[in-house]
Design a protein that fits this description.
Length: 551
């Protein structure tokens, strides 16, 4: 059996008595931020399910479906593949593991298939990296003949494991798909496992949705893919066992990571690229011409995404295929890790407001003094709900209103506004806002919503204000309180405030309730949070302080 090199250089021959063992995990790129398999919480269930599917695949006499690990960046895909590789070796298989991330690239004139075959072949040949990058090539028939010989001579099954197969095209390159089916999936004793950042099949009849997209909703097909449980954990005590740096992990840390152990892990590690850069790279695989595509269907995408945040029901749009990379609550529901909500919203609208809010939430995840983390969750929830009212103005034939019944006439615009830290009282805050929004030079348009957040952390009585301009142009001023460490409101509010909302659990008994305060019940709070933010709601609000440092 021979694997040839180009440019007239000598043929590289592989001795048939060569001992197996060249294709080891250390051939894959390793990053310090990766969670070691032995530390990844809940990985054992994943590996066992993977072994079962591999066993079914190699034994089948019929065409089989590949096993696919699909999740967002930093979701633990590579860690799972490495662990599965090691377990397969221990289970008497001949696994081959390759990665299309890191240093992998297409040489000039390379087809995706040539690059893939070359990367598989070099697992069995001692060549220098420079040789691999310059002139090393391999014919498909030589590689397949050698793999067949390996399997038969060792009496073991071949399992090809490919990390980030989506780098060869979305939809998958036709030649690559046919090669995988021909040499692995349709051959008894061979099997394929691969990871991807987006939904991907090995079918070659996937239509392109429009001239602006490289892929859209993955259609029903004759050959499906097998998917398995991926590591998931909401128990901070178990996640703290990932290392000493996680010993103070909070519930908020866990929820911000979507309860995905690897995503929680990398928050405290040095990462090579910012999250939004990784996200935008993935979106580049899905949408070739972003601006042209959004011009065509931006409104539809925004409405579908906001409905997903609202009730979890997967929308039939671009994100139907992308949603598989996130946390699936069931076959029909999806829940996005909150940092990715900001990435998606900015990609859709070029609006970075959500990213700022969620960055603040992440920053205060370990700063529980004062209960500010819940306040930022509430501001985020209100912002998302008012956006939902704006982009989905009518639901069931009626005006789409927020749960607090603030925007009674509907929503035309939503903004978040800071009050400078030197402003310490409600009276001075209202004077500042009148100068900012109520002057004739900058009047608020009808149906405007402004969420006002004081920078002064000990602002009295309120944690913030909400301004709303009704259809006639009249401005209503509402207050809210959300910090979990505050005591109950102790003062009646000035006439200039129309109403206030206590947006946390443990409402006081009726005799202790103050004038113009609405004590929001649990059902209304859960409605405000929507399906996506519901995990942030705690069932244990603790005791309410009789005194605090705010008022």
């Amino acid at each position: 059996t021979s694997i040839s090199s180009a440019g007239g250089s000598p043929t590289i021959r592989i001795p048939q008595d060569r001992q197996w063992g060249k294709a080891e995990c250390d051939n894959l790129p390793h990053h310090d931020f990766e969670c070691p398999p032995e530390r990844l919480v809940d990985i054992e269930v994943t590996i066992q399910e993977g072994l079962d599917i591999v066993e079914q695949g190699v034994q089948s006499n019929f065409r089989v479906d590949p096993l696919v690990i699909v999740r967002l960046h930093r979701g633990g895909k590579t860690t799972v593949l490495k662990a599965l590789f090691q377990r397969l070796k221990e289970s008497n298989y001949l696994p081959i593991i390759i990665s299309l991330s890191g240093l992998f690239y297409l040489r000039p004139g390379d087809s995706p298939l040539q690059a893939l075959i070359r990367l598989i072949a070099v697992q069995f040949v001692d060549v220098l990296p420079d040789e691999t990058a310059s002139n090393f090539v391999c014919r498909e028939q030589d590689l397949c003949r050698y793999l067949t010989w390996l399997s038969e001579s060792h009496k073991k099954h071949i399992v090809l494991i490919v990390d980030e197969l989506d780098r060869l095209g979305v939809p998958l390159d036709v030649q690559v798909a046919e090669f995988l089916k021909r040499c692995f999936l349709d051959k008894v004793g061979h099997f394929v496992v691969f990871s991807s950042h987006v939904s991907l099949t090995v079918d070659t009849d996937e239509p392109v949705a429009s001239s602006y997209m490289t892929s859209s909703v993955i259609p029903p097909s004759n050959r499906y893919v097998r998917m398995i449980h991926l590591p998931f954990c909401s128990d901070k005590m178990r996640l703290r066992e990932m290392g000493d740096v996680y010993s103070a992990l909070t519930d908020l840390d866990v929820t911000l990571g979507g309860c995905i152990p690897s995503l929680v892990y990398v928050k405290y590690q040095t990462q090579e690229k910012p999250m939004e850069e990784k996200f935008n790279t993935t979106m580049g695989f899905l949408v070739k011409y972003r601006h042209a595509y959004l011009f065509q269907c931006q409104r539809e995408l925004i409405e579908g995404f906001l409905w997903e945040l609202r009730d979890g029901t997967r929308a039939q749009s671009l994100f139907s295929s992308f949603a598989d990379t996130f946390l699936i609550a069931s076959l029909t529901h999806v829940r996005y890790p909150l940092p990715y909500v900001a990435c998606i919203w900015e990609w859709l609208t070029d609006d970075g407001s959500l990213k700022t809010l969620i960055a603040t939430l992440s920053l205060v995840a370990s700063l529980v003094e004062g209960g500010k983390e819940w306040e930022v969750v509430i501001v985020t929830a209100m912002y998302l709900r008012f956006l939902f009212c704006k982009y989905v103005p009518v639901v069931n034939g009626a005006t789409n209103r927020d749960p607090l019944n603030i925007a009674m006439d509907g929503v035309g615009s939503v903004t978040v506004c800071d009050i400078p830290g030197e402003i310490h009282t409600i009276e001075h805050a209202l004077i500042y806002l009148r100068g900012l929004f109520l002057s004739s030079q900058k009047p608020l348009a009808p149906l405007s919503v402004v969420i006002v957040v004081p920078r002064y952390n000990k602002f009295p009585d309120l944690d913030g204000l909400i301004l709303y301009t009704d259809r006639s142009g009249q401005i209503k001023t509402h207050g809210y309180q959300a910090k979990t460490k505050r005591g109950y409101p102790r003062h009646d509010l000035p006439e200039t405030i129309d109403s206030c909302f206590l947006l946390r659990g443990c409402s006081p008994e009726r005799p202790l309730r103050r004038n113009k305060w609405y004590y929001v019940e649990e059902d209304t709070l859960l409605d405000l949070l929507g399906f996506n933010l519901r995990p942030f709601y705690t069932r244990d609000w603790g005791s309410v302080a009789t005194e605090d440092l705010f008022d």
